[in-house]
Design brief:
The chain is α+β, with helices and mostly antiparallel strands. The chain has helices at residues 2-60, 67-92, 97-114, 116-131, 171-175, 202-215, 250-267; strands at 139-142, 145-152, 156-160, 166-170, 179-181, 187-196, 226-232, 237-246. The strands form 2 sheets. The chain has a 5-stranded antiparallel sheet with strand order 4-3-2-1-5. Helix 1 packs antiparallel against helix 2 and helix 6 (202-215) crosses helix 7. It is rod-shaped, with a radius of gyration of 39 Å. It starts with a helix and ends in a 24-residue tail after the last helix. Residues 281-291 have low confidence and may be disordered.
Length: 291
């Protein structure tokens, strides 16, 4: 029994010795790999931070790029470097990185197909933030979608309509249609068209409109306002006052000048006729139905 116990103890001790020897060989074999992996992680982490800061500072110098895009690209560059670093670390331990890259590519393709609409909105949001067809605070109309821009995000754009309603639109909807920006340019033209009677004095009507334009400080002198006959209609002669104002003054100026033109025409005896229809021929009389 003693010899059997000693034999089992010797096998256990021998097994532990073999395990320790194997562990030592394993440590020696992977020591350089571990040191290299740690070195790659430290260097890669530092490079990713430096690259993110460099991209951020570079994009900030370009005033056309929105701060949202600056943060997005700096984070994207940083984590892209970290992904490359992780793949390099795995390669230090003999992992087949080609298969990892293939798996990442397949996963990215699957995610892209599943989130096609979302990625389309992100791409459109980046283009809107880079090219800036509109900015926060500007009033736009995009194929019937109109309002003042409140916020431009990577997924959607928030607007406030003229009647005070909140509206959120996907970025792809704003990117794929023509956008009219009413606030971008500093000056804007307006054509005030008023119909007068054929018996009224056209020169007098033009003079009245020019006096109104010259008396209003919001009407620009360059380009110079101009009054002219634009159309000979069925029941009226259309007299047009063309003038330019600053874009913020366009709305109030156009409404107030319209009111002032009506009052001035009334004071000067210039009529503004309403459409009239003249019937020719005899009127048909429907006979009464006998009882």
């Amino acid at each position: 029994m003693a010899s059997a116990s000693e034999s089992q103890l010797g096998q256990i001790v021998g097994g532990w010795g073999d395990a320790i020897s194997g562990l030592q060989v394993l440590i020696v074999s992977y020591a350089f790999s571990v040191i290299g992996a740690i070195f790659i992680l430290i260097v890669g982490w530092t490079i990713s931070r430096l690259m993110g800061r460099w991209v951020r500072s570079l994009l900030k110098r370009t005033h056309r790029i929105d701060p949202t895009v600056v943060g997005f690209f700096s984070i994207f560059v940083r984590y892209s470097v970290l992904v490359v670093v992780v793949i390099m670390v795995l390669g230090q331990f003999g992992v087949q990185t080609a298969s990892i890259i293939t798996a990442l590519g397949a996963a990215g393709l699957a995610i892209g197909l599943a989130l096609q609409g979302t990625l389309q909105n992100i791409a459109a949001g980046i283009m809107l933030l880079v090219l800036r067809p509109f900015r926060v605070g500007e009033y736009i109309d995009a194929d019937g979608l109109s309002g003042t821009i409140q916020e431009i995000g990577l997924f959607a754009t928030e607007l406030k309509t003229l009647d005070g309603l909140y509206r959120m639109a996907p970025n792809s909807q704003l990117w794929n249609v023509p956008v009219t920006n009413y606030s971008r340019l500093p000056e804007r033209r307006n054509d005030l068209v008023i119909g007068i009677g054929y018996e009224d004095d056209i020169d007098k009507a033009q003079s009245v409109l020019m006096d109104l334009a010259q008396a209003d400080d919001r009407v620009l002198t360059e380009p110079e306002p101009w009054a002219y006959v634009s159309e000979l209609g069925d029941s009226a002669v259309s007299v047009t006052l063309r003038y330019w104002t600053k874009s913020p003054d366009w709305w109030t100026t156009s409404r107030e000048l319209t009111k002032a033109a009506k009052i001035a025409f009334d004071q000067n005896g210039i009529s503004i006729p309403f459409p009239q229809v003249t019937y020719s021929g005899a009127l048909a009389v429907t006979p009464e139905t006998p009882e």
